[in-house]
Specification:
homodimer, 315 residues, 60s Ribosomal Protein L30, Chain: A, Phosphoribosyl-aminoimidazole Synthetase, Chain A, domain 2, 2 domains, four-stranded mixed beta sheet, globular
Chain lengths: 315, 315
């Protein structure tokens, strides 16, 4: 059992470096003092037990990884270079110290991968496990914003949609066929932050805007487009092959399932029609998704799709 | 009732300005983009229902105020100039929209007072109300750190200790004499962030270190001093007059109670012996607390005081 705040800080200090080029004064004082670039991107995301994850099928390592990964994904969508993060940890007394060590060791490994400093945070008792991460990084010269595409522009996608949701459903159902869907399950438990992709795309002048798809394309596409514009999806749009048997077994439409998605952490981008070839050349992971049109709504072959995405308050 | 994430964002946007000199890109995108000074101070604090506050005696306005105020207090201790903050809000479904509006309006008023921008955050359902604020500001040239004082240096205090704890005890007991102790109750519900004091002190070259006293002097003094040093408290140390009747009624020692304190949000500082007069001249609120000695522990008139402060994990 974890006995005191000091005990926590010991664990954290044993796992996260005390020294980092970005961190002039580290953890342990009232504030960290940070060496900052002129423009910084900043974001934060909650990661709460039984809302965003369950300890039944998330290992401590998965929890530590994903709490940080979903925050990194926001930086990826801004084309930012990760620098540091803060962790607010709500800790239920019944969890063992070992759980905490494993969870934070996994978070530390991901932080190391992107060379970011844990600069501080807070820890407190609570009735269930919760992590609130705040993250920041250097901003690219051009801000990668939403609502910057125009009718005729290409919409593209890096990463998969629907796959994480497929994994979530299987995990929730405790499906006996989990082994067949390892990729989907992993996509839910361990989404990969597309930091490198975000950096490449923000450096590409033809890319007009970028966003991370966390609530599903159906919900996020309208957020990405201006209110006076809409989307015509590629009629040859392919869903991930795993969604085919998954949806067949459940009598669902694979495309609708993919578009509804949720927690995809894919990157959605807009780009001039002429420029898309060059974008794909330097980042083949970017797939053609469709085009921005001057008609609000999401259409495919002229037919309006009525889909509703994921909102924690409506579930 | 609050129905959706959008509903939340509407409330937030109606209360917090969308434009601020510090905020190049505001809320509503994946990241905020911030115009940053070269050195920033960064901190965050959790503020959780039934751990840090109770809705029985905290009004929504008190909650919104204090969640931000305790974070500002960390910046005060760093001598930093507040710039912006992020809010992660855990919202229990049973609370009314009006509660949210009142809570956030009060937070917005405090943000306005210190001219800081709410740059983003996250919101999610949860079983009880919780606020995780991250805050940052421009760092002073000299970092105001702990463990910088030497034996012989003066320790001083701006703000009261013990008073907030007195208020907490009365509120918890639902004491019929609450009206006699309005000042103590207010100190618990609405601690004043000593930002101006922190700025003045960090600009004063004789001030060697600064810290905000949030866990009580008994616990925070050893954190403020180096392990090889200790404290000799002023033998004429005065406690706040309200603590005298409060402790008499409860057969407690007022000095011990003041030193144990908790959530004082006073500023503790160290300063050269010769320089203290000048510090007091420019900030009369700074009171002589004692001196740093070369003997670890907290002493008064040569006698070691055995006191234990406040730790959420030991209560």
């Amino acid at each position: 059992m974890i006995k005191s705040e000091e005990h926590f800080l010991e664990i954290i200090d044993s796992l996260f470096p005390a020294v980092h080029a970005h961190m002039l004064v580290g953890r342990g004082d009232d504030c960290a003092v940070l060496e900052c670039p002129e423009k910084m991107c900043m974001s934060s995301d909650l990661f709460l037990e039984d809302i965003h994850f369950r300890t039944r099928y998330f290992s401590p390592e998965d929890i530590g990884y994903k709490a940080l990964a979903v925050n990194l994904s926001d930086l990826a969508a801004a084309g930012a270079s990760p620098l540091g993060f803060g962790l607010n940890l709500i800790w239920p007394g019944y969890l063992e110290e070992e759980f905490c060590r494993r969870m934070l060791a996994s978070m530390a490994a991901l932080a190391r991968e992107f060379d970011i400093a844990l600069t501080g945070g807070d820890v407190s008792f609570g009735s269930s496990l919760g992590l609130a991460v705040s993250i920041w990084g250097g901003s690219p010269e051009r801000h990668m914003l939403r609502a910057r595409g125009n009718p005729g522009d290409v919409l593209f996608l890096a990463g998969e949609v629907g796959l994480a949701r497929c994994g979530l459903v299987l995990l929730e159902e405790n499906d006996p066929e989990l082994d067949r869907y390892v990729q989907a399950v992993n996509r839910h438990l361990r989404p990969e932050p597309l930091i490198r992709e975000g950096l490449v795309l923000s450096g590409h002048t033809e890319v007009k805007g970028l966003m991370d798809v966390s609530d599903g394309l159906a919900r996020d596409l309208p957020r990405f487009c201006r209110p006076d514009t809409g989307v015509e999806l590629d009629r040859d749009l392919k869903v991930h092959p795993l969604l085919i048997p998954f949806c067949r077994d459940r009598k669902m439409d694979p495309l609708a399932f993919a578009l509804l998605g949720g927690e995809d952490y894919a990157l959605l981008g807009a780009c001039s029609s002429d420029g898309f070839g060059a974008v794909q050349k330097c980042l083949p992971a970017c797939r053609f998704l469709g085009r921005i049109t001057d008609r609000p709504g999401i259409y495919m072959e002229g037919k309006k799709l009525e889909l509703k995405g994921f909102d924690h308050f409506e579930q």
